[in-house]
Amino acid sequence: MAEQEGNGEDGAVAEIEKKITEAFEVFDHECNKTVDVREIGSIVRSLGCFPTEAELHELLAKVEEEEEPTGYIHLEKFLPVMTKVLLDRSYRPIPEDVLLHAFEALDENKCGYLTKDELVKHMTEEGEPFTEEEMEEMLSNSLDPETNTVHYRDYISMMIVDEPEDLPQ
């Protein structure tokens, strides 16, 4: 990293822009520096940010600010907005203890797990409801196939994202 010494913040910004571009390119199936607008949430999450759906819509509004929505997002418009998000450390993951407290609040019997039916009910009918696709993805990662339950402490341990160490403080 000797070549970046002396650059300080410029080097950090260049490194962040490189990470964003690499994540964007994974979803740029046409190789024309555009992605389907529906892929933006996946790109943002792959960069360690976890916005709500409402925050994601706000982010998209900033990206599409000066033009008619086309259903596609251009890298040149996405890059500065996402760089600021990462520099500002926006949309950080929810801390482990907060997740645990949320699952414990849903666990009326205090048994350390939720049944599939309980989890589906809570996640699709309350708060910001999960889509069917999001629910299937969650269950595929969390459900114990033998007991048809989610042992939420194990699931939380699996979900926790370590803070990226290479972003500027």
Radius of gyration: 19 Å
Quaternary structure type: single chain
Give the overall average pLDDT. Answer: 87
Q: Can you write the helix and strand succession as a string?
A: HEHHEHHEHHEH
Overall 3D form: elongated
Give the uncertain stretches in residue-range form. 1-6, 164-169
What is the helix tally?
Answer: 8
Strand fraction: 5-15%
Helix fraction by DSSP (H/I, runs of at least 4): 40-55%
Biggest sheet architecture:
2 strands, antiparallel
- Helix/strand/pairing class, anyone? mainly alpha
Please report the total strand number as a whole number: 4
Strand order of the largest sheet: 1-2
Distance from first to last alpha carbon: 18 Å
Describe the protein.
The protein is mainly α and 169 residues long. Helix 1 packs across helix 2 (40-46), helix 3 (53-63) crosses helix 4 (75-87) and helix 5 runs antiparallel to helix 8. 13% of the residues are buried. The two termini are 18 Å apart. 53% of the residues lie in helices and 7% in strands. The protein has helices spanning 9-27, 40-46, 53-63, 75-87, 96-106, 116-125, 132-142, 152-159, and strands at residues 34-36, 72-74, 113-115, 149-151. Residues 1-6 and 164-169 have low confidence and may be disordered. The strands form 2 sheets. It has a two-stranded antiparallel ribbon with strand order 1-2.
